[in-house]
Amino acid sequence: MSLPLPVIDRLFARLNATYGRDFMSRYEGQDSAAVKTSWSHELDGYQSNLKPLAWALENLPERCPNVIEFRTLCRRAPADEVPLLAEPKADPARVAAELEKLGHIKVKSSTAQNGMKDWAHRLKSRHDAGQKLNMNQVRCYREALGLNEPAMEAA
Questions:
Q1: What is the pTM of this model?
Q2: pLDDT tens-digit profile of 27-63?
């Protein structure tokens, strides 16, 4: 099903008003009904939602578009916002029951203990335990932890 003729007529009137002779000279010597039928066919699918056509008319390029370029512009129109369903409320009794099942698990929160520098504390612990680290690893954890003493050779 193609776009209705009144929609195509309004579209042509707007494009003619915007681009003037550039738009009309493209179709000079051609049957205007055939040109409009072609535009109607190429813009098939927008008869139930004219918003992409309106968006394209508000965002026209500097150069006069042909029907394919105009259709591409219509396809770039932002999608309509779809109303979302409200998120269901959690059943407090079920949440409590599920949390109770997990009660035996202790979660170690390194972020709460050491902040965002947990990696530096781990490197320092490894180094203090005698593990060999390269100079860059030693320098990085010392800088991160604010240890201003000169960096020792990697052990």
A1: 0.53
A2: 889 999 999 999 999 998 888 889 999 999 999 999 9
- Give residue 4's identity as a one-letter amino acid code: P
By the 10 Å C-beta count (0-12 exposed, 13-18 middle, 19+ buried), 120 is classed as buried
How far apart are alpha carbons 13 and 18 in whole angstroms?
9
Residue-by-residue DSSP string for 75-123 = HTSPPPPPPPPPPPPP-HHHHHHHHHHTTTPPPP-HHHHHGGGHHHHHH
- pLDDT at position 112: 53
Nearest alpha-carbon partner for 18 in 28, 7, 10, 27: 10
Q: Is 44 exposed, middle or buried (0-12, 13-18, 19+ CB in 10 A)?
A: exposed
C-alpha to C-alpha distance for 20 and 5, rounded to whole angstroms = 21
- Long-range CB pairs of 99-104, under 8 A, 24+ apart, other chains included: none
Token pair 């959690």 is at which residue? 90
